[in-house]
Amino acid sequence: MSVTDVPGFAAAGVACGIKPGGQPDLAIVATAAGAAASAAGVFTSNKMTAAPVLVCQEHLAATGGRAAAVVLNSGNANAATGAQGMADARRMCQETAAALGVPAEHVLVCSTGLIGYPLPMGKVSDGIAAAAQSLDPRGGPHAAQAIMTTDTVPKQVFVAAEGFTVGGIAKGAAMLEPNMATMLAVLATDAAADPDALQTALRAGVANTFNALTVDGAESTNDTVLILANGQAGPVDADALIRAVADACESLALQMADDAEGSTKTVFLRVTGAASDAEAAKAARDTANCQLVKCSWYGQDPYWGRIASEMGAAGVAFDPATLTIAYGPHVVYQHGEPAHPPELAQYMTGRRLDLHVDLGMGDGAARIITTDLTHAYIDENMGTS
Predict the structure, then answer these.
(1) What 3-state DSSP class applies to 308?
(2) Fewer Cβ neighbours under 10 Å: the N or C end of the chain?
(3) Are the C-beta atoms of residues 12 and 135 closer than 8 Å to each other?
């Protein structure tokens, strides 16, 4: 089930030669009839902002939150490419618009891949033409494959809500860090929602999913999540829309974590008992990004000392005497004393780990989804090729 299982949307994914080896590398997701739909987006906060992000923001502002299509390429981020990069991002929109018979401002654009290299626009143009000709109501899986970079599997989701649906595709396997992650995601819904309501739903959906995901503490130049709402299902309850969008984002975020570069563990780190939610988030994120902690997870070692050390160094209200650390149901530290439950070794062999840290200082709470750090991650990131 994918983005095109939402009625009224079509997609395509093709190979146009951006990537070596002939892998799919260009996708289009569009309203089936080319009609403009309500649209919203959230983007990287990295000030080294890629050209496609800037063009998306321009188009959403110019149209008041309307779009008919999204064109995406993988293999090249079109970031740190100066004026030519901006021209190329706009050209991608213009050529997609011409192929679909819609205004250029109604096309949004995303790119992902290597930073600092110009787009091979001859290949991109051929890909846009081929993808536009290949649009299909069953094309979501092809689009999901075409936006992959170091992903090993495509990421797709479909949520059937009460009277409407939400579908999506995403990519992301590294440089995942709030806010947001090295990721692209395109969501679609047949709910009727004006652009402001759609933006509210998207921001709420991203907050505790994509924005609670970190693999390596690095924030990308291209992070983008877009949503289009064609309204075919009619008006829906605002809270129901928020829940459905959040469910879709949650599924995609977990798929990214499970496929993170080289990872063998997906860790759900929950911090409670902090002096505030902000302090809980700070302690959780510092611990999730600690290389020593991440390496211990890879070694299937619950080494609570590294976790306690990071919590104590996070600059939040802290007292070792009120600290509790537990993996799943297994408490490893409490009231200033370590524990060594015999069942813990088996628990640490699992792919997914639940780590709960209670600071005992207040009512603040936060959650982070993260991964371990492995040899394979280093091998993947030693160079640009």
Answers:
(1) helix
(2) C
(3) yes
Kindly indicate the confidence band of residue 244, based on its pLDDT and cuts at 50, 70 and 90: very high
At residue 33, the 3 state secondary structure works out as coil
Task: Report pLDDT digits (tens) over 4-63.
Answer: 999 999 999 999 999 988 999 999 999 998 999 999 999 988 889 999 999 999 999 999
- What whole-number distance in Å separates Cα of residue 167 and Cα of residue 3? 4
Distance, CA of 217 to CA of 370 (rounded, Å): 10
Q: Tell me the C-alpha distance between 88 and 81, whole Å.
A: 10
- Residues 32, 22: Cα–Cα separation, whole Å: 27
Positions marked catalytic: 182
Q: Render pLDDT for 311-324 as a digit per residue (tens, 0 to 9).
A: 999 999 999 999 99
What share of residues in the chain are helix, strand, coil (percent, to 5)? 35, 30, 35
List pLDDT tens digits, range 125-134.
999 999 999 9
Per DSSP bridges, beta strands 107-114 and 224-235 are: unpaired
Domains of the chain: 3-258 (3.60.70.12), 266-380 (3.10.20.340)
**Owner of token pair 């299509």:** 69
Provide the 3-class DSSP secondary structure of residue 216.
coil
Enter the pTM of the model. Answer: 0.90
229 vs 232: CA distance, rounded Å: 8
CA distance 159 to 167: 6
| Dist. CA 373–CA 375, nearest whole Å | 7
At 268, which helix (H) or strand (E)?
strand 266-274
CB 187 within 8 A of CB 166: yes
Beta pairing partners, 369: 213, 268
> Treating both helix axes as pointing N-terminal to C-terminal, what angle do 238-258 and 195-207 enclose, rounded to 10 degrees?
40
